[in-house]
Amino acid sequence: MVKPSLVDPRIMEVGAMSLTLNEARAVSLRAREHAEALGATVTIAIVDAGGHLQILDRMDGANPLSARIAPAKAAGVALFHRDSSDLIGLAEAYPAVFAQIVEVAGTPIVAGRAARLLRRQGVVLGAIAVAGGTLDQDDECVDVGVDAHTLATSTPVSAQASFAE
C-alpha cells in the first residue's frame, strides 16, 4: 500500500512559481518612470503572493503616508486574490466580515484603488499598488507596472534590465 503524500505535488509546482526580485524591480521601475512622466510623486509597493513586501519605492517628495498606504493596498489585493475594484466591492458589501478578516490577517489591509495582482500562467505571484498621486495617476502607474510584468515574464532573462546600481 502506498502512503498518501503530506505535500500535494501541485502545491510544489505553484510554490516554485514566485515573483523574483528582478521582476519586482522591473515592475517598480516602469511604474516609477511613468509617474515621473506624469509629474506625480508616488510610492510604489510590490508584494509577494503572501502579501509580504518585496519593494517599497517612495519617490522624493511623495507624501509620507503613501509609504504606509501602498503596501497595505498591495497586501490586501495579494491576500484576497482580487484586484482593487473587486476588493472595494467586497469591503462595501460585507463591511463587518471584511473588518474581521483584516483583523485576522495580521497585516494592514486597505481596500482602495490602484492595486492589481501580478500573475504568471494564471497563478498569483504578488501584487502592485501605488499611492500618493491623484487616483487616476495612481491607476495609470499600476497599469504600466502590470504591463511591465507581463512583458518581463515573456522576455528571456538575459534581455531584461540590469539593476546593478
By DSSP, the count of extended strands is 4
Reported for the largest beta sheet, the result is: 4 strands, antiparallel
The general outline is globular
- Output the strand order for the largest sheet: 2-1-4-3
Structural class label: alpha+beta
Topology of helices and strands:
Elements: H1 9-16, H2 21-38, E1 43-48, E2 53-58, H3 66-80, H4 84-93, H5 95-105, E3 115-120, E4 123-131, H6 135-154
Antiparallel strand pairs: 1-2, 1-4, 3-4
Helix pairs in contact: 2-6, 4-5
What descriptors fit this protein?
single chain, 4 strands, 4-stranded antiparallel sheet, 16% strand, 165 residues, alpha+beta, 6 helices, 50% helix, disordered C terminus, disordered N terminus
Describe the structure.
This protein starts with 8 loop residues before the first helix and ends in an 11-residue tail after the last helix. α2 packs antiparallel against α6 and α4 crosses α5 (95-105). β3 (115-120) and β4 (123-131) form a beta hairpin. The chain has six helices and four strands; from the N terminus they run ααββαααββα. The protein has a four-stranded antiparallel β-sheet with strand order 2-1-4-3. By secondary structure, it is an alpha+beta fold. The protein is globular. The chain has helices at 9-16, 21-38, 66-80, 84-93, 95-105, 135-154; strands at residues 43-48, 53-58, 115-120, 123-131. The chain is 50% helix and 16% strand. Residues 1-15 and 155-165 have low confidence and may be disordered.
